[in-house]
Amino acid sequence: MLTISRVSKSFAGRTLFEDASLQVNSGDRIGLIGPNGAGKTTLFSLLLKLDEPDEGSISLQRGVRCGYLPQETAASTDGTVMELAAGEDADGRAEAAAKRILAGLAFREQDYFRPVNELSGGWMMRAHLARLLVEQPDLLLLDEPTNHLDLETLGWFQNHLLGYPGAILTISHDREFLNILCRGIVEIRHRKLLRYHGNYDAFVELKKAREEQQLSAYRNQQKEIEHLQDFITRFRAKASKAAQAQDRVKQLARMERIEAPESDEPTVHFKFPQPVRSGQRVMSLEGVRQAYGDHVVYENLHIRVERGQRIVLVGPNGAGKSTLLKILAGDLPLEAGERTPGHNVSIGYFAQHRSDALDLKKTVLAEVQSISRPVPEQAARNILGAFLFRGEDVFKSVSVLSGGEKSRLALVKLLLDPPNLLLLDEPTTHLDMPSIDALIRALAPYEGTIVFVSHDVHFIRALATSVIHVQRGHLTPYAGDYTYYLDKSRASGARAGTIASLGNHQPEAAPVERVASGPGMKEVRAQRRAESEARQAANRERREREKRVAELEAEIATLEARQLELTEKLENPGTYDNPSLAMEVNRQLAGVADALEKANAEWLATAETE
Question: What is the value of pTM for the model shown?
Answer without folding.
Answer: 0.70
